[in-house]
Amino acid sequence: MSARSEILARVRAALADNPAVHRVPREYRQHSRDAGTAELVEMFGERLAEYTARVHRAAPEHSPAGITAEVLRARGARSAVVARGLPARWRPTTASITLVDDAGLDIDELDHTDAAVTGCAVAIAETGTLVLDAGADQGRRAISLIPDHHVCVVRTDQIVGTVAEALAALDPLRPLTFVSGPSATSDIELDRVEGVHGPRHLDVIVTPVEC
Amino acid sequence: MSTAFLGMPELPGGHGNLRGAQEFPHAARQALGNRQLRDNLAHATGAIRAKRSAVVDEVPDWEELRAAGSAVKADTLARLPDLLEQLESAVQARGGVVHWARDAEEANRIVTELAAQRDAREVVKVKSMATQEIGLDAALDAAGITATETDLAELIVQLDDDRPSHILVPAIHRNRREIAEIFAEHMRDDQGRPLTDPGDDPAALTEAARRYLREKFLRTPVAISGANFAVAETGTLCVVESEGNGRMCLTLPDTLITVMGIEKVVPTWRDLEIFLQLLPRSSTGERMNPYTSMWSGVHGEGGTPDGPREFHLVLLDNGRTRALSDEVGRQALHCIRCSACLNVCPVYSRTGGHAYGSTYPGPIGAILSPLLTGMDAGDTNASLPFASTLCGACYDVCPVKIDIPSVLVHLRGQATRSGHRTERTTMRLLAWLMSSAGRFTAAQRLMRLGRFGARNGRFRRLPPPLSGWTDHRDLPAPPRRTFRQWWAARRHRDGGGTR
């Protein structure tokens, strides 16, 4: 008998007492407030900052590109990789930063790039989480992983309250990465240390919808 | 009682790193003699308990989430055959290959062959309980393939040729000074020179691990992971982590092999909204862990791959069907490996994880390990259900409401029936005595004779086999007069009336 048939036969034998199929009580909160409300945006920023991510608010009169350039410069980045679909209004345009469109860069090229600038698919206020789904403004997963500095632009209307709302907005068939702060470990005496293998620096720029 | 259905042979138990060489009381006694270990554990479990309660208390619907999580798991187990077949087709439909492994040996063989066929001399690993359980690193090593653990704590344990002692923080038994010594001794470059002398600051030690592993992440073509969840309807796999070592392993290599216990499947995508809230808060005491990765088969658009070009999923039994056949014990398979029960356990927080012998320590290990392996006569795992005070703290914190105390009591019954001959004989004798008023009175009268061996109303030492009791505590001597005698005398004095 193949391992597959044998394991399935074992499972059926183990369930010979026909345990009841349970209805799942979903009485937990599904929604909090409407996406993008001021309270949610505030909470998202606060909670993300608690993970030592740096959160920047772009006022409507500021261009996000200007903030992106400032944030990159502040960490000493001289090159940044972006997906081809990253909107022009988010792309830093200063001469001091070389912007590289990802056309299948190899691992070494990414390793020699200082930063990555991406958008996101959705963001969760209650947990301070960004979710990337390899969309056109984000690109493949390696882009936001290998460079040591990740800059993520979030539109306020992408900020939802709960984990349940975020999952409802996502397509499970896309590759998904949930990011809550820079990489961290607590493996030595439960002391939290930020910056392990993922990007050691995370800057998040929250922009109004029209930007 | 619960394992013996009509005509059903007992299902085979699991193999691998599921039992220790010693019974729990002996192993625990050694651990308790280690002052450093007790200090490290007290510090770490105390810190994580405080973090957990802060982030759990702020969730207004925590109890509703627990109820939902528990129900999803019970529902999953009841429909497991269908869900496994559904998961298999969903993964295959998205370009993945599914393998089935009856036990540890078969899983190790599958993974080793896959790695060897790709000419891998080295593989990188994401921390995974399932691969610890089956002893995959040793099996790969025997085939000439070096497996590097990339989680910081797992790396500490691997470099020191030690065993993990906690589900979440495998090196919880080590402090920073001990870890600095391990790094200084074992982290070597190609020429065998010490890679670094980072001192004992956790940030410096972490930086050393980053440098040590970076090249391996960027160059190694095969990665091996476990899975926290797998969604049957979509074929989506999920790994929850903190350091980014998971993302590295799941994204950069050409081939990804995931080994997953069959109980990790959940029916729907929506079910993850429950577990992604329960797990991080219960486990690391964070609102959300830094990174969670999800993938469904193989990804990539327009000829540009995103992540591995090959994905293999190994579905592992290794005793899980045996545990499932136990009507009371099967709830242990609800476990999402958060380790909250370890941190609140008065036994674990003093003895640490090694005393339990198995990959799964603490309260959940005390039920899961014997359920996976069975408890034949002389099995060290038969001592695990007794490694508890039954205080119930583990049940209170369990995010999927596993009633660990009830399962412990249930397994104690099984262990007593299958082993512990003295206890079984004693219990039979007591049952015979207590089932007749005459015999019980006679026995109590006889017990009074025992008063002569006592000093100050206590026995300090009894002869074997009763010495098992007096080794750890004394025993009050039988009273001069039993309650029934006192009651009879009192009624007599009051005139025999009933009140």
TrEMBL record, chain A:
Record Gene3D superfamilies: NagB/RpiA/CoA transferase-like
Pfam families per UniProt: LUD_dom
Domain of life the protein comes from: Bacteria
Ranges of residues in domain LUD: 108-206
The name this protein goes by in its record: L-lactate dehydrogenase complex protein LldG
Organism of this sequence: Haloechinothrix alba
From TrEMBL, chain B:
GO biological process: lactate metabolic process
Keywords of this entry: 4Fe-4S, Electron transport, Iron, Iron-sulfur, Metal-binding, Repeat, Transport
Cross-referenced InterPro entries: 4Fe4S_Fe-S-bd, FTHF_cligase-like_sf, Helical_ferredxn, LUD_dom, LutB/LldF, LutB_C, NagB/RpiA_transferase-like
Region of interest (Disordered), ranges: 1-20
GO molecular function: 4 iron, 4 sulfur cluster binding
Annotated LUD domain residues: 84-315
Organism superkingdom: Bacteria
Sequence ranges assigned to domain 4Fe-4S ferredoxin-type in this UniProt record: 332-402
Residue intervals of the Lactate utilization protein B C-terminal domain: 411-490
NCBIfam families: LutB/LldF family L-lactate oxidation iron-sulfur protein (TIGR00273)
Protein name: L-lactate dehydrogenase complex protein LldF
Source organism per UniProt: Haloechinothrix alba
